Amino acid sequence: MEHNSTSPAQTVIGDLDGLWPTLFDCLEAAVATAVEDFQRRQRPVEPFHLASGVRNEFFWRMKEGGLQGCRVAALSNNGVMVEYGGYHLRLLKMDEEGGVPDQGRSAAFQGYCEQLPLLPEGTEGFLSPGALKLVLLWKFDSETHSLGALHLWLPSEWTVVIPQPVPHQQPVEVEVEEELIAIDLIEDGIDENKVG
Q1: What is the average per-residue pLDDT within 67-74?
Q2: Which residues pair with 72 in a beta bridge?
Q3: What are residue 56's phi and psi, to 5 degrees?
Q4: Are strands 133-141 and 87-93 parallel, antiparallel or unpaired?
Q5: Among residues of the chain, what percentage have pLDDT more than 70?
Q6: Per-residue DSSP letters for 97-160?
Q7: In the predicted model, is pLDDT for residue 1 greater than 50?
Q8: What is the rounded CA–CA span in Å between residue 88 and residue 154?
Q9: What 3-state DSSP class applies to 48?
Q10: DSSP states of 162-186 as a string?
């Protein structure tokens, strides 16, 4: 039997590869829009209201983005559920200490974070997307007023930073038209008869 050196976290990140560019774009735009709203009202950025504004903006941007095979649902406590590739990811803003936000006594969140025991690594069918209850934690960079890191958390198992995708650049087609430019050399003080 061949040993697979890919960790479960790397497998999940790879499985969600088609989601990351859209998710990052929508989340960055949602953070920027929420911050602009605070600036327009000349108010300091307040974490709870920032999370609420980002949640609403992110939800609509993802919904309108039309990513094939992606579903989103707004949740209470400033969260959004994203379903993609069989995975369920709950998006939440990190708390001020960089951890999981306090969801109070929310039985729904506590139930969501309870994981079924995972099979030992190397066992056939180790990752079943629907069985994993994943949380995406986004961090607000208070110095730059922008999206900081994005962490993928499998409660009680692992947490990894999601690398920001490199923007995919389409090749640019440039249409070049040949144009003959007539230069009147005499007007420039040069006699074309003497050029040679």
Answers
A1: 88
A2: 82
A3: -65, -45
A4: parallel
A5: 70
A6: TSSPPP-TT-HHHHHHHPPPPPPPTTSTT---GGG-EEEEEEEEETTTTEEEEEEEEETTTEEE
A7: no
A8: 11
A9: helix
A10: PPPPPPP-PPPP-----------TT
